[in-house]
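Bug report (template v2)

What were you trying to do?
Predict the complex of my protein with pyridoxal-5'-phosphate.

What happened?
Run completed; filing so the output is reviewed.

Input:
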Amino acid sequence: MPDDTPRPNSPEARDAASVIHPLTNLKTHLEKGPVVIDSGKGVWVKDIHGKDYIEGMAGLWCISLGYGQDRLVQAAADQMAKLPYYHLTNHKSHSPVIELAERLLEIAPVPMSKIWFANSGSEGNDSAARIVWYYWAAVGKPEKRKIIAHQRAYHGNTIASASLSGMHYNHASFGLPLDGFLHVTPPHHYRNARDGESEEDFATRLADELDALIEAEGPDTVGAFFTEPIMGSGGVIVPPPTYYEKVQAVLRKHDVLLVSDEVITAFGRTGNMFGSTTMGLEPDMLVCAKGLSSAYIPISAVMVNARVFDAIAAESDRIGVFGLSFTYSGHPVSAAVAREALRIYKEEDIVGHVRAMEPHFQGGLRKLLDHPLVGEVRGKGLVAGVELVRDKDTHQAFDPALGVGPFCNERAEDHGLIVRAIGDTISFCPPLIINQVEIKEMIARFQKALDDTLEMVRGLDQNAV
Ligand SMILES: Cc1ncc(COP(=O)(O)O)c(C=O)c1O
């Protein structure tokens, strides 16, 4: 293995000496340092040593329109020059946020009434949780506060959104989740179905589990269910057909609000403008971020339907103000960039492009099912997960201590491809502008990483795979 200890005074060493990194082993980072990315164009990024990578993850599932989108740069520069800041409190506003809200309401997957703006997916979900509580207080049921989400869901990292998340690493040693955040089995048939259980039966069992949980907790205490239409950071989990139909019937039965977390899935990612459309969800609130500005600038939006808005408006009237506020809510530069991004999605028919690329991307990855390590390939549109397993027949996973997924991730980087290992699932979420040639190249590079990983695994144990 090459020695990857940073040279003294190199940018890598200076980073290790000064920066705390998210979702990183902080101890390992002190010795290993980062890959320092310097520039990007289209689906490509270059590090400070001039090495090119295909950005197979659109950064963190976000830079949907790719690098070097001059229109977004110009929109930011123009707005900076004209009005770099104004806020929305106390009846103030500005054109970019008005136009952005109008456009979001036009394209919403189900009728929505108003838009609340925040700065990140986490803040969006945090706001949505707060709105859930406020809503139920407004309609005279303040005890309907519990919120249910999935194990392995990722909804962000503020205290409330980390509590919503179902990831061990978001909770461990942070004393989370807060009381009143509950988690149900993720709708992952490959991992969570019982022997011989059909997708249909699995979906029914999980909906029954949700129903039983709400009954046990008391329907008068459960306020909302949060879900990602397709779960991203949990390993790209696509719920089976009928799952959401059955879940939504349970939610209606107990009068529980549905919040669709579309931080990854909005704006074309799954082959429709919204993942809720792809997966048949009819949410009361919808949270989006990331692709909203193609990640060029932080912004998130929470869509709320008329049922929710009318109640919270009445409650704010009773109290005097709506007490949720961020200095940068609806920041004009962020709003101007997001408004321009939405124009680009429309003018360049990004949804049509995703649908045209989907067979090459999903089909190309599914060909890897022939590889001895690949147990499942799942995804829709331009998001996918490739799960590496020890035994393809029994779905037996590798011992996590072997670090098979992380090894594959590193080898992909060596071959000039950035992907993300979620345990032993390698996830892909390339910029939506990726073309057929780039998809082919991305998968070819991944295949090399897979072969290296197979060699590593066989080196550990001849009977391994
Ligand atoms: C589905 C989902 N929700 C929320 C978040 C949190 O967004 P942010 O990192 O912008 O706070 C993420 C981030 O990856 C996400 O994937």
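What did the reviewer find?
Residues 60-61, 120-122, 125, 154-156, 228, 232-233, 261, 263-264, 289 surround pyridoxal-5'-phosphate (CB under 6 Å). The mean pLDDT is 97.
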